[in-house]
């Protein structure tokens, strides 16, 4: 008779069986081990009952059930009927197989049974799955045999279990020897004749037998004590092994965490080294610019003082002789150039203390101290070409803004760490003002930590592919907006209007 498509089922894959065996071996407790084994059997075969038995000549039926692996609706008195179940198997128990029951009911499809023989450390038995779901995978019996391979050593016990079994056997032997010795003593006492003047000599055979039994009893007790000591040593060694494994795992975890910490410190050190290098370069540039401005300020101050003395002498001569004073050539132009230099210094984001003192002295000498009223917005512009921004900065200042101009990101980083930087409202950054080794997004995040709520804008030329590509790498969530280059006064004021400070 041929089977139709409904009577066939795909064989279990070797990968699925291997994974099930690995998952079973990962269980630590015996209860979880047995539970996972039974779950795997039910998933593959859906049997009505699972019976596991071991051969036991001392049992009445020759078989003894393993209760831990028995589940489902087995027959009543399974210990007595398991032998009959095995005898009903048509073939010998030489390999795992699927078999049909010997007695079938006409008109009723009887489920097959899966019989898996096993052997482990001198013990042998059988695992039976009654009423396997139809259709069953053709390799079900072999798969269950592979899944059960790690079960029998774990269930029957290791060295400690065998020691306990030996101790129990020796105790039974000692009890039997003790009972036999007691029976011999009772027999001797019953055979002793009534007391007479002379006691009959003791039978040497019975005395020697008694001595032999006592010696055997002593040896048995010594063996029991030795096995108990081995058992305690085995338990202690297993506990020590578990403690060593836990200590090793903790040490490996600590080493891994220490490695991660060292790697993080190395990265932080490299970042700090790059920041220090950049700050040192910016400091050198500022000091060079400071020296140039200081020299120019000193020269202009001397020219201004000479112009004032000449003007005073001319006025004195006019008062005496009545003649008009002669203008000092170039004096007004020199003062105007000096004032422009002071305006550039006023827009510099960060001035070292010595340069700030010199700047204040120059302002006092020229009489050009900044007396502008309160500004409605304070901004900083980071640009690759600061010279071309001076006219735009003057227009923005005339519109009521306070403007700082920087050419290096490090200048703004220093500004944000000062009290004046905490009053800054917005920063407009040229995307090419950052060096190739600098990450614009990372620098923006650092500035937001130093000045929370700071509005960041990006400027770039859409006609330049390198600028557009680098601007695209900056997340839109980090910026308030983006300006096209060159910067335009009207667009700047429209974009910055929402940031206007409330009038006090």
User: Which range best describes the helical content: under 10%, 10-25%, 25-40%, 40-55%, 55-70% or over 70%?
Assistant: 55-70%
Question: How much β-strand is present in the residues?
Answer: 5-15%
Q: Please outline the major beta sheet.
A: 6 strands, antiparallel
Strand-and-helix sequence, N→C? HHEEEHEEEHHHHHHEHEHEHEHEH
Number of helices: 14
Mean pLDDT: 79
State the distance separating the first and last CA atoms.
Answer: 101 Å
- Annotation, overall tally of beta strands: 11
The poorly predicted ranges are 324-330
Counting helices, strands and paired strands, the structural category is alpha/beta
Oligomer: single chain
Shape: elongated
Q: Care to describe what's here?
A:
With 504 residues, the chain is an alpha/beta fold. Helices cover 55% and strands 12% of the residues. Strands 1, 2, 3, 4, 5 and 6 form a six-stranded antiparallel β-sheet that branches. A five-stranded parallel β-sheet has the order 8-7-9-10-11, sandwiched between helices. β10, α13 and β11 form a beta-alpha-beta unit. The longest helix is centred in the middle third of the chain and has 118 residues. It is elongated, with a radius of gyration of 51 Å. About 1% of the residues have low confidence.
How would you briefly describe this protein structure?
The chain is α/β, with parallel strands linked by helices and about 500 residues long. It is built from 14 helices and eleven strands. Strand 10, helix 13 (about 465-470) and strand 11 (about 480-485) form a beta-alpha-beta unit.
